Amino acid sequence: MCIICNMPDFKDDIASDFLSEFAAAQKAMKRATDAMLRVSKEAYPAHRARYDGIHKEMVRQMREWNKLEQQREHEKP
Predict the structure, then answer these.
(1) What domain range is 64 assigned to?
(2) Which residues contact 48 (CB under 8 A, 6 or more apart)?
(3) Is residue 60 part of a domain?
(4) Residue 17's pLDDT is what?
């Protein structure tokens, strides 16, 4: 269920703030991951494998971040 629907008694917009900050973090992580991919392709050959590994770990971390959203949105009955 939607986090906003679960918080009807709150006067301020903390649920909306959470949703916008969560989405902003997703977008920032995506931009950082894309930038690291560019770095891994342009780096000196001796360093490419290291940066490629960091890029792959960043992608894994983004998947984990996205799983949090799935857990939040799909409550178990």
Answers:
(1) 14-71
(2) 40, 41
(3) yes
(4) 86
The CA-based dihedral angle spanning residues 38, 41, 46, 52, taken in that order and rounded to the nearest 10 degrees = 70
Residue 40 pLDDT level (bands cut at 50, 70, 90): very high
User: In the chain, how many domains are there?
Assistant: 1
Q: Is residue 1 part of a domain?
A: no
CA angle, 50 then 57 then 51, to 5°: 20
What is the pTM for the complete model shown? 0.77
The answer to the question of residue 18 being in a domain is yes
The rounded distance, in Å, linking the Cα atoms of 18 and 13 is 9
Count the Cβ atoms, other than its own, within 10 Å of residue 55: 20
Nearest Cα to Cα of residue 2 among 28, 40, 18? 18
